[in-house]
Amino acid sequence: MFSKEVYMTRRRVLLNKMAATAPEGKRGIALFVGNVEAAAQYKDNAYKFRQDSSWLYYFGLDEPRMAAVIDLDTGEETLYADDVDIDDIIWMGPQPSVASKAAEAGIYKSASYDSLTVAVTKALATGRNIHYLPPTRYYNTMRLASLTGVAVENVGKVAPIGEDGGRHASEELVKAVISMRLVKEPCEIEQLDDAGALGQEMHTVARNSIRLGIVEQEIVGEMEGVVLRKGWGVSFPTILTQRGETLHNHLHDKIVEPGKLMVIDAGAENNMHYASDFTRTYPTSGKFTSKQRDIYQIVADCNELAFSLTKPGIAYRDVHIATARLMLERLKDLDLVRGDVDAMVAEGIAGLFQPHGLGHNMGLDVHDMEDLGENLVGYDPDQKRARQLGLGSLRMARRLVPGNVITDEPGIYFIPALIAKWKSEGTGKDFVNYSKLESYHDFGGIRIEDDVLVTPDGARRTGPNRLPVQPDDIEDAMSS
Ligand code: GLY
Ligand code: MN
Ligand code: MN
To answer: Which CB contacts under 8 angstroms, 24+ apart, belong to 365-368?
Structure first.
């Protein structure tokens, strides 16, 4: 945990933000529920415990079955959790008291976990607003439904409480939390650099483990071992595949074959639960073919362009569009597309090659706060999400401010089913050289991803040792 002052300050800032949403006496309570253990096959064989990220942000306590109420009118804070009894001690050993755990988070009032029901029932009976965040886990969905009387199907809907007294999650609370978690504090940046170091070590081990004839899973095992030794685990299910054109390919069952491209998209979650998320693409034989190198260099240049444009004030949506323009210019040099580049950008032709966005926020979650709503997290109030393939998938469009941590992850993919669909529908027929694209049917995909901190005067990549990215450097690293 960070020091208790970190959590106390965050909650004080949150209280002030919520105070601005309603007059005193009309604010109500903010209700936070941490995660509980989730049974895998049966209760005592649970999935590895992962605490809720907003809970970690405001309370830091990394244990199951905890909840808290902040009274938004009086500022009173109560932690709800259970002290262990002798049965627990037999199986788990002695544990600190709830009161002492609460004190670690700077909270000086605690009560049993089940007495949360009494507190919420009383708040409801007296007509107070109940502000809670949309839950991710089913248990918390059910618990919030039973605590608040909100129908299960409405528990996760986010709308302003002010408008209807609240039969749903609180947009006011969601917006206040997002505004804070979007801007990383110095203590968080240290953690993100630490997770970056772990992720870079993972990738280095993975790169050194690539051998023709082995199964992809062997590389995954070597790589994930790094983070299991030093951190909490992977920050998302590893993507390691020679079929990189499938964007989130989680199968690792193929033999490593010569002449292929291997996309490795993986990251670490450190013991404080901060994430990293890097992608590199390797020629399985250790050398790029000239055809691979041509496409690879475009992606590397888009990655570099995005980094060079990243600074306070620019909208990341515009950085995405700038990389799409560069990608199309360079694909035009290869005669894969033809015509006016600005017209192609406007038509969204880049989406055929990169059907995903340039990047997302990163922090305690690898796609930070996606549970709170992609558009609320990634879009300024005056920005509308596009519908085009590619730009429409952009998760972070906002104007950047210092302290934002985002990913820079352009890619080019040759997805046979998508190419066939566009061709048959006539999409992009004025621009796309479909006959030349046929020779890229088995090409696969390339993605390059770094994690980037927006600084007061520009940006820097997180993690101490940037992974090789230029094709010569990749080949050198693979040969040594
Ligand atoms: N892990 C998928 C991504 O890079 O966002
Ligand atoms: Mn990634
Ligand atoms: Mn990413």
So the answer is: 365/53, 365/275, 366/235, 366/236, 366/267, 366/269, 366/275, 366/277, 367/236, 367/395, 368/53, 368/181, 368/182, 368/275, 368/405
